[in-house]
TrEMBL record:
GO terms for biological process: intracellular protein transport; vesicle-mediated transport. This is Gamma-soluble NSF attachment protein. It comes from Anguilla anguilla (European freshwater eel). Its main location: Golgi. InterPro entries: NSF_attach, TPR-like_helical_dom_sf.
Amino acid sequence: MAAQKINEAHEHIAKAEKYLKTSFMKWKPDYDSAASEYAKAAVAFKNAKQLEQAKDAYLKEAEAHTENRALFHAAKALEQAGMMLKDMQRMPEAIQYIEKASMMYVENGTPDTAAMALDRAGKLIEPIDLEKAVNLYQQAASVFENEDRLRQAAELLGKASRLLVRQHRFDEAAVSLQKEKNMYKEMENYPTCFKKTIAQVLVQLHRNDFVAADKCVRETYSIPGFSGSEDCIALEQLLQGYDEQDEEQVYRVCNSPLVKYMDNDYAKLAISLKVPGGGKKKKSPTSPQDAAGGAGCRRGG
């Protein structure tokens, strides 16, 4: 079966090369037909599990499409070459081809496809290179942002923010979260702004910057519905507890369902938060639910 597929692939390559030859009667190579034959060869190689040769055939297909100015199809072929490299566990090379494809999609005037390709690349590289994944998600977000596709841009920035937190790159995470929050505010998705404020405060406190954490909360008062909300109350209690070095209060808020059921990376930040100059955390007899209720907000809306 495999041998048959390999023979088939070689036949398609021979045909493709014939289409590319010029002669006295044929001045211009037939790039379109050549690309089609290379694509068939790639599929045959892939079915025969000859991934290296499949990758090469996809690259030749991409080349023929590029010569023909069929950039969308060229980019698709580059992505396929990338997927062959992924299957060969050669991830950094795979990502290079997908990035190159995304640039072609933008050039072709199909930015959405470019952003989705970068998002896919981010997911692929995430288990082995968090830094590269952040970079890919940020690139994808800015492509969507340029297209005024704020929801998609914010979601991708969200992925980048979480990975920055996971790497303890808190300065960059703070900037990323602020950008996310601004986008959700522009979309009038206020409840998500409140959640982003909790994430911001946790990041700023991990940076030991109480003033910046306090500022994040104060600026959220301008967002409708924040004043008096459970998010507002919890944040006020958290800042008060942190400022007064009250470990029990900080522990209660950080272990309340409101914070505990946030994205895992932020929940971990909450659990590991230590008050300045504090010793061991004491387990509070108060139930975690009390953390989100009880105290009013210190500042008016």
